[in-house]
Design a protein that fits this description.
single chain, alpha/beta, about 10% strand, 2 domains, eight-stranded mixed beta sheet
C-alpha cells in the first residue's frame, strides 16, 4: 500500500525554507497587520450582508461595534504580549550589563554560554532529529596541555566542526571548547588550560564550572558517555618522579571534579599519543605494509577489571606480548638497516618499550589508588600520527588486545633468515671439520 512520505516531505521543506526564515518572519508581521486591517474593513463594508444560519449577525450597528471592539481587543492583547517580551529581553540585557560591570569575568561566561547555545542549535539542524541530544554518544577529551588532544581528533577522527563563532561585540572570540560531530559520536575537544585544576586562575575555574554545569543542564540524564584521557608518551618517559607525581595529582583532581559535577561514573579511555616521536619508530613503522600500519595497537580491559587488579594482568600481558614480538623482529630489522645509526635507533626503540610498560602501569595504579577515586578504566591505546586512531571506544563489545601489527610483516622473513643463517653455519662447520681431518691425515 502506498504511504505518503509526510515526515520526509516536511523535513525537505524545512531544509529548503530555513535560509529565508528571518525575512519570512518580517513578512509575516506585515501580513498579520494587513489581515487585521482587511478584516476590520470587511466588518463595516460586507458585514451587514454576511449571513450565517440564515441570519445577518452584523446587520445591527451595535453588533458591528461589538465585533470591532473584540477585534481591537485581540490586537491589543497581541501587542501587549509583544511589548512584554521585548521589555523582558531588554531587562535581561540590562541585568547582564550590570553583572558584567560588577564582575568582569561574567563577560567570558556569557560568551561561552552564547557559543554553546548556538552550537546546540546547529547540532539540532545538523542531525535533523527531535532526539538530537541522544542520537549520538558524547565524549570529552581531557589531558595535560600540549598532550596532542587536538591532533588526535583532527587526524584520526573523521568529524565536522558544525559551528564557528563570529565576532561578538566587535571582538574575535576563540572558544576553549571545540565540539566535533562524527558519524559515531560527538567529541568535545577541551583546551588543557580549561581542564587542568592545578594552578589555574579564577577565570578558567569559573569557565570550567560553567562548562560542566551546561553539560548537566543540557543532558541531565547522562551528561557524557565517557572520557578520553590523552598522555604525551615521550614526555611521560622523560619526566622525573616529581613531575609524574604532579601529573597524577592533577589528573586525580580533574577526574574527581568531573565526577562530582556530573554526578555519574564515566568510563575512561587512556590514549598514549606521539608514539612516532620515539627514536626508532620510523624505521619499524615504514617496514610494515598498509594492513599492518592501520592495525590497532592497544588493549581493551574486561568490564570489571578496574575493580580489582585484573587490569594490571591484562595490560601486562598485552605489553609483554608486544615487546616479545618486537624483540623477535629486532634481529631481522637490524639486518635490513644499512647504517649504524638506524640499527641503533631500532635497538633503542625496543629497549624503550620494555621500560614503558612499567611506567604506564605505575601511573595508572597511582591514579586508581587515590583517595575517593572511582575510575572506570576501560583500556589503553597507543597512537601516532600515521594511525587512523580507531580505538574501538564506540563499539559495545570492543575486541581484546591487538599486537600483531609489529611482526605480521616480518614473521615469515624472520624464519627464512634464521634458516639461511643456520644452513650457512652448518656449511662452515662442515668445511672446518673436513679441513681439520685432512691436516691430521697428512701429518700422520
Amino acid at each position: 500500500m502506498f504511504r505518503f512520505p509526510t515526515s520526509r516531505l516536511f523535513s525537505t521543506l524545512r531544509s529548503a525554507l530555513r535560509p529565508a526564515m528571518p525575512r519570512f518572519r518580517v513578512s509575516a508581521a506585515w501580513l498579520l497587520a494587513l489581515a487585521w486591517i482587511f478584516l476590520l474593513v470587511w466588518i463595516w463594508w460586507q458585514g451587514p450582508k454576511w449571513t450565517l444560519y440564515e441570519q445577518h449577525w452584523l446587520a445591527p450597528l451595535t453588533n458591528r461595534w461589538l465585533a470591532t471592539a473584540v477585534w481591537g481587543l485581540i490586537a491589543l492583547i497581541w501587542l501587549t504580549w509583544r511589548v512584554m517580551k521585548r521589555l523582558q529581553k531588554l531587562e535581561k540585557q540590562q541585568k547582564q550589563q550590570r553583572e558584567e560591570e560588577k564582575d568582569p569575568l561574567t563577560v567570558e561566561l556569557h560568551r561561552q554560554q552564547q557559543y554553546l547555545d548556538h552550537w546546540l542549535l546547529r547540532l539540532r539542524r545538523h542531525l535533523d532529529n527531535r532526539r538530537y541530544l541522544w542520537q549520538l554518544p558524547w565524549y570529552m577529551v581531557i589531558g595535560p596541555a600540549g598532550s596532542g588532544k587536538s591532533a588526535l581528533l583532527r587526524e584520526g577522527f573523521p568529524s565536522d566542526i558544525i559551528y564557528t563563532p563570529e565576532s561578538i561585540r566587535g571582538t574575535e572570540y576563540h572558544p576553549l571548547i571545540t565540539p566535533r560531530v562524527g558519524n559515531q559520536a560527538v567529541i568535545f575537544d577541551v583546551d588543557g588550560v580549561l581542564t587542568s585544576p592545578g594552578g589555574d586562575d579564577l577565570l578558567h575555574r569559573r569557565l570550567r564550572e560553567h562548562w560542566l554545569g551546561w553539560l548537566m543542564q543540557t543532558r541531565a540524564r547522562q551528561p557524557l558517555n565517557g572520557l578520553i584521557l590523552t598522555l604525551d608518551l615521550p614526555d611521560l618517559l622523560t619526566a622525573d618522579k616529581s613531575r609524574r607525581e604532579t601529573l597524577v595529582q592533577n589528573l586525580r583532581q580533574q577526574l574527581q571534579e568531573i565526577r562530582q559535577s556530573l554526578h555519574c561514573r564515566l568510563p575512561v579511555y587512556v590514549v598514549l599519543t606521539r608514539l612516532d616521536l620515539l627514536t626508532g619508530f620510523a624505521a619499524l613503522f615504514h617496514s610494515l605494509d598498509k594492513k599492518d600500519r592501520d592495525a590497532i595497537l592497544g588493549v581493551t580491559f574486561t568490564r570489571r577489571a578496574h575493580e580489582s587488579d585484573d587490569w594490571r594482568s591484562e595490560l601486562g600481558a598485552f605489553w609483554q606480548t608486544w615487546v616479545q614480538q618486537v624483540n623477535l623482529a629486532l634481529s631481522d630489522l637490524m639486518l635490513a638497516q644499512t647504517g649504524a645509526a638506524p640499527r641503533s635507533a631500532v635497538f633503542s626503540f625496543s629497549r624503550q618499550m620494555q621500560g614503558t610498560g612499567e611506567i604506564v602501569t605505575a601511573l595508572l595504579a597511582a591514579l586508581l589508588d587515590g583517595e575517593n577515586m572511582d575510575v572506570m578504566l576501560r583500556g589503553v591505546w597507543l597512537n601516532h600520527r600515521y594511525s587512523v586512531a580507531r580505538w574501538m571506544i564506540f563499539s559495545r563489545s570492543p575486541p581484546p588486545a591487538s599486537t600483531g601489527w609489529v611482526t605480521a610483516r616480518w614473521q615469515p622473513g624472520l624464519w627464512w633468515r634464521r634458516r639461511r643463517i643456520l644452513l650457512a653455519a652448518s656449511s662452515l662447520k662442515s668445511c672446518w671439520l673436513s679441513r681439520t681431518w685432512r691436516v691430521k691425515t697428512a701429518s700422520g
